[in-house]
Amino acid sequence: MRSKFTVIIFTLSLIPGNLFSGTKEEVIRLQSDVLQLQNLVRTLQKDLDRSSGMNQSLLEQLNDQVANSNSLLSKLVDAFRSQRNSAQEVASGLRDDMQRVVIKLDDTNNRVAALHRKLEESQARRDSLRLTTPVIGTDPKPDQIYHLSYNDYLTGNYELAITAFREFLTKYPESGFSDNAAFYLAICYQIQGRYEQSIDVFDEVINMYPNSDKAPSAYYKKAIAQLDLQKNEDAIDTFSKLISIHSDSPESQLALQELEKLKVDLTEISSK
To answer: 119-168: per-residue pLDDT in tens?
Structure first.
């Protein structure tokens, strides 16, 4: 840009001095040339200023970009450090969880071992009762026979328990254990998937022992067996009777939950 000003000044210096002594037209033309040169100078100055401003703006943008890049880099570093710390915390938490799981497993193993010992003791008692020879001229006591049958049920010998409970009910129909024997007989059938037979025996509990503490459970278990047979209407009727007859029992609350699952209007149940 400086070289352009030098050319202009040099050009003006070459104008001869006697040129100003020429005609009026020449003077006017000279003045016009001078004006054009002045305009050219102003234009060049504006270009110079504009160029300088653009360079300054570009420099400012570059500085802003550098600042933004530094800020982003700082955030990335902080995020990386935070993530690393978080990963360390997670790893520490996992180690603690694993230790708790190991402790719980040990506790569970101890409980299983204790339960196994109790089961072995129960089987031993059952075997000793079976081997006990009653006094000549006397029969085994009903409670002994019942507990033998109940032990068969507890140990999963359901076929043996079914036979024993049936024999007990035949021989001791008026015993204080008869309601329990009938109830667990029905449970054995239900566990084996013999739902029709279990329903029949639950009806025996309901009809023959209405005041038994097993009666509410008999209603509930009977309804569940009916659901297993997809006899939903029968099950709804059984649940409704349970709620009506044994409203204060825990089984009554379970029956309400089952009716809700079946989309039954509970207001109709309560109004019956």
So the answer is: 555 555 555 555 444 444 456 688 888 999 999 999 999 999 999 999 99
Q: What is the pTM of this model?
A: 0.52
Work out the average pLDDT over 183-211.
96
Q: Which pLDDT score is estimated for 264?
A: 86
Query: Looking at residues 106-112, what average pLDDT do you find?
Result: 58
Locate the domains of the chain by residue range.
2-75, 133-271
CB-count burial class (<10 Å; 0-12, 13-18, 19+) for 58: exposed
Q: Which residue type sits at 241? A: K
Q: Does the 133-271 domain belong in CATH 3.30.70.580?
A: no
Burial class (CB in 10 A: 0-12, 13-18, 19+), 269: middle
Read off the pLDDT of each residue in 6-26 and give the average, rounded to a whole number.
Answer: 52
Q: Report the pLDDT value the prediction gives residue 141, as an integer from 0 to 100.
A: 82
Amino acid at 28: I
